[in-house]
Amino acid sequence: MGKKADGLERFKRETRQRLQQEMERIEGLKKGIERSTFSGDQEDVYGELTTTSDIHPADYGTETHFRELDLTIKQMIEEREKEIQRALSHLDHDQYGICEVCGQPIDPERLKARPDATLCIYHQRQKELSKPRYGYGDRGYGDADVSSVLGIEEEEEYEH
Ligand SMILES: [Zn+2]
Q1: Residues contacting 25, CB < 8 A, separation 6+
Q2: 98 alpha carbon to ligand 1 midpoint, in Å?
Q3: What is the pTM of this model?
């Protein structure tokens, strides 16, 4: 085995580790959100707020806002879990770093920042454009707010 192959093996091992660490972090976030959103205690508090007549409607709105934000973050977390799992399975099948759509290599800089990337920057953008925005209202929450909660870096950074 030459030096190059050794380097590749090490890269794959390190990437796998990074992906597994990220998965654990995401799992932790998800548990935290599930506790605060879906626990019985929270349900009771929520029920009281909505049935007590002297609560101002604005308070009710705030509560709903937080619940929907929690659900939005949960959706993003689940999507991210799937991405990480896909990237891990790509590692197993020697498909890692290859765009799922066009089969071209993904920019190494992009992989460094997002080891779970399974699409090249072009097809990632296409995907972002085609999916509905999270949140509600005219603009939703904007991806930036939720992304910062998850510690996801903005894609724009890789456009140089
Ligand atoms: Zn592509």
Answers
A1: 151
A2: 8
A3: 0.63
